[in-house]
């Protein structure tokens, strides 16, 4: 067996599924929502896909010293397409919320509190581990000035990256996985503008200004790459179909299921998801699932929903688990002489650890902070309810300027 064989990913998925089944049987967790069960189940596939993708890249890196995409379209797309799906899920969920909001002004205060409590705690937990690993590997001695060290920490603190203490494997420790988080925040901070311009909802000047400042700040330090924004557009298609489309659409018929499978096959024949054709195929698959297609019942499985519930921990923490096993457990030099079969077996043995750690990350970090966010929002809303009439919206502000 080799790392580019389809059997490798099938076995990893099977081991992850059996581990999740056992953990979920013993320690059940309640899914946050079953309204979009296909999407909830899809998440589990996606996070594990990124883990498998990085497992293959790690083997190539140890052999060649180059961190490149896998020499296989299937394994390249396993990572890139999974990330595109994650972006589409984000877009779908929050565009749907905006579309279905009956309030005159969307509750941005609650939205940003929930997003901060949802994404930041686990990220900062990972950051603490990252610093500990870097300092351990640099023998707890500063190799840069304190100012440079603090500067690198600042970058990581705002979801950017930089070598910590001049350690050139800093980002490798987490398999470079956090590059997606700034794009997630770009989308979140763009929503007040989207709400105003596209949905014509009243939006307070404060959030409009914050939105504009964040967008300008983001693109002042990051190049504009249209292919990173395409998934967010693709994910916004389904909400409009659900809101304004025919209620008689049958999404679980054999024909549509076959179309989804054909699209998935075609995606694996394309070198990268950065192409518009590929993103279009991914959008077709995602829209079908978002509308309710469950891939012949596969996405109704409770174990897959469990994997979907813990997927954020899987996505963020799998890299540091891989690094721990490969660097501290065996050492790069020893792994370099592994046969591909031996390396595959090592990843098979690592897979249950990934699932268990992901469950622990969800149970002890993600879930408590999500619950805390809900309590905070409930308290704030009860004491300081939103009063649109007392908030000067950007629409009124702009109107006054035009009259002036």
Descriptive report:
With 404 residues, this protein is mostly helical. It has one domain (6-403). 71% of the residues lie in helices and 0% in strands. The longest helix has 44 residues, at 340-383.
List the helices and strands and how they pair.
Blueprint: H1 6-26, H2 37-64, H3 73-100, H4 108-137, H5 146-157, H6 180-197, H7 205-221, H8 226-235, H9 237-244, H10 254-267, H11 276-290, H12 302-309, H13 311-330, H14 332-336, H15 340-383, H16 394-403
Q: How much helical structure, as a percent, in the residues?
A: over 70%
Model regions low in confidence, pLDDT < 50 over at least 5 residues: 388-404
Distance between the termini: 73 Å
Number of DSSP helical runs? 16
Largest sheet geometry: none
Number of beta strands = 0
Order of helices and strands: HHHHHHHHHHHHHHHH
Give the amount of beta strand, in percent: under 5%
SS-derived structural category: mainly alpha
Radius of gyration: 22 Å
Domain count, please report it.
Answer: 1
Shape: globular
Mean pLDDT rating: 91
Name a few traits of the molecule.
404 residues, disordered C terminus, 16 helices, mainly alpha
Summarize the structure.
With 404 residues, the protein is mainly α. Helices cover 71% and strands 0% of the residues.
């Amino acid at each position: 067996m080799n790392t580019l064989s389809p059997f490798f990913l099938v076995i990893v998925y099977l081991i992850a599924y059996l581990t999740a089944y056992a953990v979920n049987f013993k320690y059940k967790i309640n899914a946050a929502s079953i309204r979009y069960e296909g999407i909830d189940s899809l998440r589990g596939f996606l996070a594990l896909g990124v883990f498998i993708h990085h497992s293959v890249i790690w083997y190539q890196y140890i052999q060649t010293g180059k961190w490149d995409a896998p020499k296989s379209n299937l394994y390249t797309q396993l990572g890139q397409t999974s990330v595109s799906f994650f972006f589409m899920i984000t877009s779908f969920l929050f565009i749907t919320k905006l579309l279905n909001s009956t309030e005159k002004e969307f509750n941005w205060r609650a939205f940003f509190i929930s997003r901060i409590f949802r994404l930041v705690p686990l990220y900062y937990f990972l950051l603490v581990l990252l610093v500990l690993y870097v300092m351990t590997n640099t023998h707890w001695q500063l190799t840069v000035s304190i100012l440079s060290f603090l500067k690198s920490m600042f970058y990581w603190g705002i979801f950017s990256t930089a070598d910590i203490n001049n350690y050139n494997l800093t980002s490798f420790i987490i398999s470079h996985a956090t590059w997606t988080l700034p794009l997630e925040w770009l989308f979140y901070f763009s929503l007040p503008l989207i709400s105003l311009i596209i949905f014509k909802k009243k939006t307070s000047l404060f959030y409009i200004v914050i939105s504009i400042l964040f967008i300008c700040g983001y693109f002042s330090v990051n190049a504009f790459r249209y292919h990173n924004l395409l998934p967010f557009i693709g994910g916004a298609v389904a909400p409009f179909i659900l809101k304004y489309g025919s209620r008689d659409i049958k999404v679980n018929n054999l024909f549509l299921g076959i179309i989804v499978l054909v699209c998935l096959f075609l995606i694996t024949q394309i070198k990268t998801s950065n192409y518009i054709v590929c993103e279009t195929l991914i959008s077709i698959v995602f829209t079908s699932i978002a509308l309710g297609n469950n891939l012949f019942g596969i996405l109704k499985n409770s174990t897959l929903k469990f994997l979907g519930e813990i997927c954020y921990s899987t996505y963020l923490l799998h890299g540091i688990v891989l690094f721990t096993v490969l660097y501290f457990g065996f050492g790069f030099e020893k792994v370099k002489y592994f046969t591909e079969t031996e390396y595959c077996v090592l990843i098979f043995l690592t897979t249950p650890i990934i699932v268990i750690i992901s469950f622990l990350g969800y149970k002890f970090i993600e879930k408590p902070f999500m619950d805390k966010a809900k309590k905070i929002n409930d308290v704030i809303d009860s004491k300081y309810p939103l009063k649109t009439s007392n908030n000067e919206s950007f629409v009124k502000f702009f109107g006054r300027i035009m009259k002036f």
